[in-house]
Specification:
Number of strands of chain B: 1
Order of helices and strands of chain B: HEHH
Helix content of chain A: over 70%
Strand content of chain A: under 5%
Radius of gyration of chain A: 23 Å
Largest interface: A-B, 27 and 25 residues
Helix content of chain B: 55-70%
Largest sheet of chain A: none
Shape of chain B: elongated
Oligomer: heterodimer
Number of helices of chain B: 3
Structural class of chain A: mainly alpha
Largest sheet of chain B: none
Number of helices of chain A: 9
Radius of gyration of chain B: 32 Å
Number of strands of chain A: 1
């Protein structure tokens, strides 16, 4: 793997796509942040959801060229190995786009804060407080979940040939339904084995001790393994696509 | 080159499902035996439903806490009167 090739791939991406990214992603987020601060037109949670969807949506476009017959050969003939192409796209999805979004939010908030000051100085809140309110929900666990979803959508962009985002959403929905059914059946079978019959057949409900919580380190371990798994699968799938 | 991705995905799914079932079973059994999971009889009290009478009494108490007392009002009026003069 050659670092220079990766840098060239990233530069090539910038030359081709920077206007598209600025117009359709960064500018939209900046305007939303600018309107959100002084006018409170929509809920702060909605703003977080929009930003998260955009960050998850971006990697699904990473390998779009690979699945279009017109540009497929051109993409595969680019003088860089498949691993280098995957690494370059990983950088774009995890660093470039996320950083772009954060910078857009900060600039938008700063402008919105200025508008608020001009419009109504009495309602003016310090910039640091607003930024703190926006990023307050982004503690360690949501950040890990965000990067896990980025990894999943990255893999989906290689795996699914058409509409990777919707196919990924559909797959995740089906998986979550299946998991819910499995968990429900497992719990029922467990209760069948342990809980006395008069309780099982009577009008009882289960009470879980609030102390029963999975450890934080276990969550980070599981999410970290998930991220590594999906990128490893992306490398493998990319090699298979070339073959 | 042989394609392994689909096979690995299927194996992962099977391992995860089995792991979930075994893990949850162990967790459930341990928690039930240690008393962290219990079963309680289902009664109207356990649903935490608030009756209308309780709700009205609560809203009345909140309202009386927020409404300023007549004494406060008169003192405020006096203050505004003096400030106007």
């Amino acid at each position: 793997m050659n670092i220079n090739n990766i840098i060239k791939l990233i530069k090539a991406y910038f030359y081709e796509n920077w206007q598209k990214d600025v117009l359709f992603s960064f500018l939209i987020v900046m305007v939303l942040a600018m309107l959100w601060v002084p006018f409170q037109l929509f809920d702060g949670m909605l703003f977080t959801v929009i930003c998260t969807i955009m960050m998850v949506l971006f990697p699904t476009r990473a390998f779009g060229k690979l699945h279009q017959p017109a540009s497929r050969m051109h993409y595969l003939m680019i003088p860089a190995s498949n691993n280098e192409k995957v690494v370059a796209n990983m950088f774009l999805a995890n660093v470039y786009f996320v950083a772009g979004m954060i910078i857009s939010i900060i600039i938008g908030t700063l402008l919105g804060n200025g508008i608020q000051y001009l419009r109504n100085p009495e309602m003016y809140a310090p910039f640091s407080k607003i930024i703190n309110d926006i990023f307050m929900d982004f503690s360690g666990e949501p950040i890990m979940m965000l990067f896990l979803f980025i990894a999943i959508s990255f893999f989906a962009s290689i795996y699914f040939k058409k509409s990777p985002f919707w196919k990924m959403i559909l797959t995740l929905f089906v998986i979550s339904v299946v998991i819910s059914i499995i968990m429900g059946v497992t719990e029922w079978l467990n209760a069948l084995a342990v809980v006395p019959e008069e309780i099982r057949k009577g009008n009882y409900f289960m009470v879980k001790d609030t102390v029963v919580n999975s450890d934080s380190w276990l969550f980070y371990l599981k999410t970290g393994l998930g991220i590594v798994y999906f990128y490893a699968m992306s490398f493998l799938r990319m090699r298979e696509t070339e073959a | 080159m042989k394609k392994y991705t689909n096979k690995i995905l299927i194996i992962t799914a099977i391992v995860l499902v089995l792991g979930m079932i075994i893990g949850y079973t162990i967790q459930f059994q341990t928690d039930y035996r240690s008393g962290k999971i219990t079963y309680k009889p289902f009664t109207p009290d356990s649903t935490n439903v608030i009756s209308m009478e309780d709700l009205e009494a609560y809203s009345d108490s909140v309202m009386t806490e927020q409404t300023p007392s007549p004494q406060d009002e008169t003192s405020y009026e006096k203050e505004t009167e003096t400030s106007n003069h």
